[in-house]
Amino acid sequence: MSKISHHQLRIIGGEWRSRRLRFPAIDGLRPTMDRVRETVFNWLQHDVEGCRVLDAFAGSGALGFEALSRGAKEVIFLEKHPAAAVQLKENLQTLGASNAQVWAGDALLWLTQNPEPFDLVFLDPPFGKNLLQPALDSLQLLPGALIYVEHEATLKPQFPDKWQELKCKNTKEFYFRLFEVEEP
Questions:
Q1: Is rRNA processing one of the keywords UniProt gives this record (predicted)?
Q2: For residues 75 and 143, what is the distance between their CA atoms, to the nearest angstrom?
Q3: Residues near 77 by Cβ (< 8 Å), separated by ≥ 6?
Q4: Which domains does the chain have, with CATH numbers?
């Protein structure tokens, strides 16, 4: 069995600011960049504390760890790759975070079987795998929920009608957006 090399990410705000966490070097695993995370959490600055968070397609867990560091009540990490899921669990232990769980399995399967209410959802699936639209179609959220979506620039996802886009930025490679589920 070959040894997996590791990379590091830095938590940029909150209780664990400047803490570095390891993540495995896995093809296609791309943690949300520091400057993008900083923008996203500036958008969310008053909306993270005390909320239930879902980090679907967690990968390195950068978004979920950032939410925990900033006072999220609970974070559920969904990650299919076994090495990434193990590293997420190890990082939670390192931080002493007892208010988070890692579900090692298919995020789309979990979404269809667990229509739980979350206050904040991070959707940043691996690029080029056609996972975003099925995830969007599977999410069942209550009014007021916030959804962060990151997707490749070439993708034209169909967002649910009841989602209001609050913020949107893009680079040449990808878009990152924040939505809120509207009241009926």
A1: yes
A2: 19
A3: 55, 58, 61, 64, 85, 88, 100, 101, 102, 103
A4: 6-181 (3.40.50.150)
Amino acid at 113: Q
Structure tokens at 167: 């913020």
Q: Is the predicted pLDDT of residue 139 greater than 60, yes or no?
A: yes
Rg (CA), the chain: 15
139-145-150-155 Cα dihedral, nearest 10 degrees? 50
Neighbours of 16 (CB within 10 A): 20
Cβ(139)–Cβ(114) below 8 Å:
no
Q: Do 25 and 8 form a contact (C-beta atoms < 8 A)? A: no
